[in-house]
Structures are given as structure tokens and as C-alpha cells.
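Pair request: fold both.
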Amino acid sequence: MQLTMDEIINAVCINIAERRMIRPTEVTVEMLWDEDLGYSAHVTVQGRSWYINQNALIEAIIRYLDQEYRMRVFADQITLDLTDEIIAHIAQ
């Protein structure tokens, strides 16, 4: 299985919204990749912004897969990859 960058962004928005008790539409996410730092995302909520690392991205993906697809997935089954965009491969 594979998640597109849009689905990864949705996963992060939903995860942050649940933690902050706001609507997912109030969260903006920009996916990032850096040769030295790896995968991360720039998150903005109500005028405040911060970065989340790859581990936080994978945690959001795990929760998203559980909620949206009813799939029980562990962190070691998820691989982020950069093609034309950032995607997540899910091993089953």
C-alpha cells in the first residue's frame, strides 16, 4: 500500500487537530525533505508554526491508517520516499 503526499498531509492535519482540539482545516502543513535532516513538515496553526520530525510524521500516518483504513501498522512497516513528491510505502 502507498499513501500520497496529500494523504500524509491529511494525516498530519488530523493528528494535530485532535491534539489541539481544533478542526483539521485550521492546520496547514508543508512537507519537507533535506539531505542532512531527512523528512519533516512545517506546521502552522492559528498563526503559530513549528517543525515536526520524521518520527512525528510516521506517528501521524499510523493513526491515520488506523482511523481511515482500520489497519494496524507499526513504525517499521512505514517507509517515506521522495519521487516527484513525498510518499509513504506501507509494508503488509
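--- second member of the pair ---
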Amino acid sequence: MRQTSFAEMQCSLARTLEVVGDWWSPLVLRDLYLGVDRFDDLVSDLGISRNLLTSRLDKLVTGGVVRRERYQERPPRDRYLLTGAGRELVPILLTLMAWGDRWATPDGGPPLGVRHRTCGHVCTPRVTCSECGEPLRAEDLAPVPGPGGRPGPGTMLIAQRLSVGPGAAHRPRR
């Protein structure tokens, strides 16, 4: 069954989900990051059907986060590599993995860790402020209108609530 398209929504999150927001795409991206980059290897590792993987890879290529590279002409075989946009998704995926390690840990503990090559330590990925480096928490954030913000599909009420007046953006509804 085809999901509703988010391509026309005036929301960066919705448009991101249009490219990578199905169940399989984050796992495909994870495998590509880990070096599992050939079609048959992806099928084997993920247990995904060939048709579904073809569809997901096509969508990721069209979305600009993956590129195909021919490694064999006869028969034609491609490998799949992350683009710059795809590599920028890796820390986000690893942060989701860290959330899963904390809140949805598989039996036996986390199945994968990551080492920060700069300092050499095994670390827990987290989201931090681009300005001060502090970890970001929901209660410490206040949404503000952006330059492209306007009422539209996916942002109709958000646009209204962010323009209500002083302090409106500081009190998200719960």
C-alpha cells in the first residue's frame, strides 16, 4: 500500500520523511555506512525482498542520499554508496540507535557501538547545540518561525501557534 506523500508539505521534517521515512530505508542506510553496499549482500543482511529493496534503493538514489556505482559490466552489477547528504544522516541514525540502546535494548545489550575516531573513545551519539555544544533536551528548546515558515499542509496550526505573540513558541502544548 502506498503511503501519503509528504513532498508538497511546507515542513523540512515531512520532506525528509518523504525520502527516508519508511521502515527499511534507515536500515539500508545503516548497512551502507557499515560497508554492506552490494544488492545481494543487502538482501542477505536485512532479510528484505528483492523487489522491496529495489524500490527503497531507487527512492534513496532519487532523493540524493545514495548513489549507484557500477562495479561489473557482465552481468551488470552495482554497489550503492552514501552521498554527502547520506553521510550527514549517519550521526542522526546513530543517535536513533543510541535511543534504542537506552529504551529498546535487545536481549544481551546493544549489538553495536561506535568509536569516535578523533578522540579514540567508544561514545554514545547525542544531539547537541550547534552554538554552545550542550546536549539538547525538549524542555530546553523553544521553536521559532523560520524564513520559509507559512501555513500549509503539515504546518497549518504550527504556523498559527508560532505567530500568536510573545512567549507562544516557549509553551508547546502537551
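Observation on the second member. The helical segments are 12-20, 25-33, 39-46, 50-62, 84-103, 156-162.
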